[in-house]
Amino acid sequence: MKFELLNFMTLGIYVHLPFCRVHCAYCPFAISTDLSLQSAYIDALIREIEGRADGEGADTIFFGGGTPSRTAPQDLARVITAIRNGFDVADDAEFSLEANPEDVTPEAIEFWRSLGVNRLSIGVQSFDDRELQPIGRVHDAARAREAIYDATSSGIRTSIDLILGLPNQTAESFRSSLDEAIATGIGHVSIYMLDLDEDTALRRRVESGVVSLPDEELISGLYVEMVETLRDAGFAQYEISNFARPAEESRHNLRYWRRQHYHGFGLGAHSFIGERRFANTRDIHSYIGGVVSDFSEELTENERRHELVFLRLRQTSGIHYEDLLRLCGEEAVGWIEHGVNEGWLQRDGSRVAFTPAGFLVSSELISQLF
Description:
- This protein is of the alpha/beta class.
- The protein folds into two domains: 11-257, pyruvate-formate lyase- activating enzyme (Alpha-Beta Horseshoe); 300-370, Arc Repressor Mutant, subunit A (Orthogonal Bundle).
- It is built from 15 helices and 15 strands.
- The chain has helices at residues 38-52, 73-86, 106-114, 129-132, 141-154, 171-183, 201-207, 216-232, 251-257, 284-288, 301-313, 321-328, 331-342, 356-359, 362-367; strands at residues 11-17, 57-65, 88-99, 119-125, 157-164, 188-193, 236-239, 242-244, 262-265, 270-273, 276-280, 293-298, 319-320, 345-348, 351-354.
- A nine-stranded mixed beta sheet has the order 7-8-6-5-4-3-2-1-9, sandwiched between helices. The protein has a three-stranded antiparallel beta sheet with strand order 10-11-12, with no helix packed on it.
- The radius of gyration is 21 Å and the shape is globular.
- It starts with 10 loop residues before the first strand and ends with a helix.
């Protein structure tokens, strides 16, 4: 079976900047709180960029972490210089930088913009201090409000992250955070359901009974309600966890979901070039020492088929009916009919997509096709 490869001449660039003041209790990502390693890490990062760059065109850049906003200004400048020297970065490239509220000031925003950053993603997580405290966030709600005000007032494109399912969260407190996010004037919001699949400090506290979480049924109901609330406020859902006002979608993240090519540089970063996926080590000492690679794999035909269906269906645009049949066979006909009847799938002309309720169990439902 021949697969459609969804990529263009240009690619995306992801850079992982892992340093944080504290390790948040819910975070499973590759991070370090040892700021003394920052200079050596940046040296290693630049070596990796210079060793892999070959003048390719790039139209999205995303600095994630970790906390990129904690990176020393001179180090950020060095990394960006290496990228611009190694790649043909488009004049209109989307350049996103993740920031924690405590790092966002008018002066910081001005500096980031001088480097080419044109989009901030601020890790708010909640506007309720009772929810921020047990997950170990440094900022409080007041500081988050100040950061968002500074960002939106500067004119830079602004997105914030919220989490659904936090300790101490109630229906009323989540609705309040959502309403406040809408009222700030931001153009984009990512709302993630708390994930404790990996070993984290918060997971251990929950398992030991020290911390309790909201009921799963409550979370599911709030998710469906949230989609409607955001839609009525002018935020269109375009992916399971992402909502945007017109023209405010994250072009870089869309690249992942559309199977377009991207380079990932830095600790634990993943890349997708051709039909090859590869990732870097999550051990910062190994990375600094020059042992960069963790794994590399060429996707099999079945893996490509599964990935294409999964990534299409995690977007609200869904997948064409005929494409789903081509990729999954005639059994997809019954799957679609059952899904529409049960309310977890919807058909709009020739397209098939999950409903908000379907998104909640989408991974299990997609597994039925393979």
